[in-house]
């Protein structure tokens, strides 16, 4: 089993944090600093800037202590809410999953992180990308690394609800009907090209996704735990497809867009295939279990207890409310979407090594959590405005707590 040593306690993981931008001037702080101002020269126009004293001016009054600066919100939360050693040990196991997936899937790190976050907060993911960007391979590899059962269902126009959930079958030996489980009875269900089946069959997943159970012939049967639906769809082919209803879209935690690889990434993919990589044989590629279901369930419980400050809750609500009054949107985010964003932010904070949620956690999760929950107005579509553009604008214009 691969082992990745845990990070020191209370040390955030930079991979789940936004990278700091460059210095506004484009140079290193201190480089190319202007000379000292001449006496009486105005040194700035903002608050706290004063003209330098001219000849004959009284000497400045010496300050015995520097001006007091109140601690930032993150500094206060970091002092009060910390993870313990068990949290860091569990995080190390999930970090090993990310590394293990990299043995079979090159790139697509945001999608890997999205699926791990969804597993931590009992969500489902909608994977969108053109054919051949490793959507199915990604889910199969994560299942292998977590030692979880996975089942793939090819959604077609003739697929029936019973083909997914299971149905009652007559047993000639006993002379009675018995229930035969469908492929939904698994941990990771890969619903391949889910938009190619009629809404009647799509709706068969609604109860399974929300209640994690299946009702057939008046009897309710519980699905395994954890349970995640990873549905895929092709964004460029619409002939013979059935758009997912809003009720079903709202049950997906994330909509993850898998982009085409860049030059270096695609070169690495070809190198691996040139050396005999076979995507159908993950064991031969060296992918093995590095975590298990009890580890994941314990991690999910701990992630759900991450502290959320009142200021961060208000910030999250302000963003949700802004989607409902945005002029470019015909449909805003529902309360379910708000609660799912909160759970995802807690999971992201935990994976980052923090015991508290920051506004940055909320900001970075808004696009993937909301892009499938809102609707553009027709006039906005005609103007070429995209959903992600609208969400980015809302983030930029909503004041974040400091």
Automatic annotation (TrEMBL):
CDD domains: AAA. Residues 121-262 form the AAA+ ATPase domain. Residues 22-40 have a biased composition (Low complexity). It comes from the Bacteria. Residues 1-66 are annotated as: Disordered. Residues 1-11, 50-61 have a biased composition (Pro residues). Gene3D superfamilies: Magnesium chelatase subunit I, C-Terminal domain, P-loop containing nucleotide triphosphate hydrolases. SUPFAM superfamilies: P-loop containing nucleoside triphosphate hydrolases. This is MoxR family ATPase.
